[in-house]
Amino acid sequence: MLKTTTVVVGAGHTGLAMSRCLADRSIDHVVLERGEVAHSWRTQRWDSLRLLTPNWMTRLPGFAYGGEDPDGYLTASETAQLIADYAKDSAAPVRANTTVVSVRPVERGYVVQTDQDTWHARTVVSASGGSAVPHVPALRDGLPAGITSVTPADYRNPGELPDGGVLVVGASASGVQIAEELYRSGRPVTLAVGEHLRLPRTYRGKDILWWMDASGLLDERYNEIGDLPRARRLPSMQLVGSPDRRTVDLNALRRLGVRLVGRLAGIRDGVAQFSGSLANMGALADLKLGRLLDTFDAWAAEAAVDGLGAPERFAATEIPVPARLALDLRRGEIQTVVWATGFRPDLSWLDAPVFDRKGRIGHDGGVTASPGLYLLGMPFLRRRKSSFIDGAADDAADVADHLARYVASARGADHG
Fold it and tell me: Nearest-CA neighbor of 381 among 110, 128, 73, 123?
């Protein structure tokens, strides 16, 4: 059995950030990765995908973007290459093509079983993140035979889908991007809309992420939030990282020709049924956007920030009247359904008493109830920016500090 102080599961940006923080603290460790470094960026992204965050926000421990396009947005392949280069430059002890089969607590640590070998580690960090597998609702089983069903992890480009109309379920970042691309490819597109976070790509001449970063919003900590469970469940921001920095919201999609319907509530006898809450969802998103822009304007005035455009407000979301409540999927109009309904972590390999009755893992800022077991990459893990590449550095440093204290105390107990 191989031995180390810490096993890090996953060699994406969060796992590599953790590796760098552990190395800085002289903690011996290994990073286990089921594929190659940045595996999900290489295998589970569509062709046109770009990061939602501008390049200047691509920051990791010991690394900051220094290229010629700080206001651009990296493609998926560029992101994968950047992460691979980061692993090489930081000399991370990655064992690629090694799948973790199980992790279980034992005396003085954990046994980590892989398809290659077995490790004993005092501590384990799950850095596989909160977006490991697509979440598809059970109502997918009601789709009529012959309709193609894909997720954003499967989707690559319009040319791989059958001819005909597409129903995109979900209007967060993935949903609006894919809906726009499919419509521009010449396909009729229907977008089922639930709760969403409406944002302009730019505001007063600056990227909306600049406002969130500069104002301190992204650094808001998990223990400062009134309703943390809800904050962790919020959908991703309705943004597209395009070179022309365009805003793709429901109004833009409707003007383009995308048909908007309410949240997909069920499929009965081949008929898709949509909620009548579309107008309310649009109004709620508009209200939250207005409040956010008010907060930014107040901060800019108090901080006396120069070089900004004048405050502006955006037209209310236009909702089709009457709202369509049903669509017969048996008539051939829809040939494909894209389930842009979010992602979930995959911790099926973890055999530790840290899950609730619904199978969700509990943690306090990445620290689980099982001593020496940690998480990284989850939504709002320790800060609002935890889901971004830019959030990995601070989160990894905090978790590494806790881990280092735990290791020191455990070793003291061993020799006490």
Answer: 128
Q: Which CATH architecture has domain 2-132+345-414?
A: 3-Layer(bba) Sandwich (3.50)
Please give the single-letter amino acid code of residue 340.
A
Euclidean distance between CA atoms 120 and 13, whole angstroms = 24
Token pair in block for residue 389: 């590449």
Three-class DSSP category at 57: helix
CA count, 13 A, side-chain hemisphere, 147: 26
Cβ neighbours of residue 133 closer than 8 Å, sequence gap 6 or more: 153, 343, 344, 345, 346
The model's pLDDT over 108-117, given as tens digits with 9 standing for 90+, comes to 999 999 999 9
Q: What is the DSSP pairing of strand 264-268 with strand 271-274? A: antiparallel
Fill in the amino acid letter for 112: V
- Is residue 415 over pLDDT 80? no
Residue 229 preceded by cis peptide, ω within 30: no
What is the CATH T-level fold of the domain 135-339, as seen in this structure? FAD/NAD(P)-binding domain (3.50.50)
Nearest to 170, CA basis, from 197, 143, 144: 197
Q: Whole-prediction pTM value?
A: 0.94
Task: Enter the DSSP assignment of 34.
Answer: S
- Alpha carbons 29 and 3: distance in angstroms, whole number: 9
pLDDT digits (tens, 9 = 90+) for 193-229: 999 999 999 999 999 999 999 999 999 999 999 999 9
Instruction: Work out whether the CA dihedral 281, 287, 290, 294 comes out positive or negative.
Output: negative
Q: How many CB atoms lie within 10 A of CB 321?
A: 7
Three-state DSSP class for residue 49: coil
**Which of 380-413 are b and which e, b meaning 16 or more Cβ less than 10 Å from the residue's Cβ?**
bbbbbbbbbbbbbbbbbbbbbeebbebbeebeee
d(CA 415, CA 132): 39
Q: Where do the CATH 3.50.50.60 domains begin and end in the chain? A: 2-132+345-414, 135-339
